[in-house]
Amino acid sequence: AQSVSQHNHHVILSEAASLELGCNYSYGGTVNLFWYVQYPGQHLQLLLKYFSGDPLVKGIKGFEAEFIKSKFSFNLRKPSVQWSDTAEYFCAVYLAGGTSYGKLTFGQGTILTVHP
Amino acid sequence: DTEVTQTPKHLVMGMTNKKSLKCEQHMGHRAMYWYKQKAKKPPELMFVYSYEKLSINESVPSRFSPECPNSSLLNLHLHALQPEDSALYLCASSQNRALTDTQYFGPGTRLTVL
User: Fold this and answer.
1) Average pLDDT, whole number, for chain B?
2) Which residues from A are below 8 Å from B44, CB to CB?
3) In whole angstroms, what is the distance from residue A49 CA to residue A51 CA?
């Protein structure tokens, strides 16, 4: 079965530090990739997504992610984090074809804590 | 407007109770989803409805019964739940089930089973 792995469970940074959150998936077919964010007390929100084309995608709030097909990876980056980026971040994969069509599979999540 | 609403926000029920969770969207989306999220875990898909028909049931116990009465509404009927069913239940919707369709999530219903 397909799976999504996020390398870090909890990341703690100071403001202005750079961020990279790792995401790897195990599926050889066509995938679409997402990063969702869940701020404290709020619902899941889409940060960015990759369907095709330029493997470097830009999302909201200065986030970007790079799809590296050969590494089955979709890492999230931000050059300079802010205290307001404190949240839980989920990588998710949407598969093409088969009986799982329409199934969004999430990674375990990474909690990001940014200290002022 | 990309809003998915869910009611109630919180629900406490006993193991013999029958209750329902409600989800609503007015974005014209034709695919709707139920997810379950346990504490410190990612959301896990339970059901997918497409054009008001059940498309995916991820082997969910029959004590959870979904219903899609129309294209805007999605219900989850609960009966004889167990304490381990306590979780955040999330509803989502998307334009269709196409790979390019983004799923929009509601705030969830936090369910506690006593």
Assistant:
1) 92
2) 106
3) 7
**CB within 8 Å: A44 and B42:** no
pLDDT at A94: 85
Which class for A71: exposed (0-12), middle (13-18), buried (19 or more C-beta within 10 A)?
Answer: exposed
Pairing of strands A45-50, A31-38: antiparallel
Helix, strand, or coil here: A111?
Answer: strand
DSSP B58: -
Burial, A79: exposed, middle or buried (Cβ in 10 Å; 0-12, 13-18, 19+)? exposed
Residues found in chain B: 114
Is residue A85 classed as helix, strand or coil in its secondary structure? helix
CB B23 within 8 A of CB B39: no
Task: Give me the sign of the Cα torsion angle B33, B94, B5, A43.
Answer: positive
User: What number is the average pLDDT over the span A82-100?
Assistant: 85
Question: Which residues in chain A have Cβ-Cβ distances shorter than 8 Å to B99?
Answer: 30, 32, 51, 94-96
| Of residues A109 and A7, more confidently modeled | A109
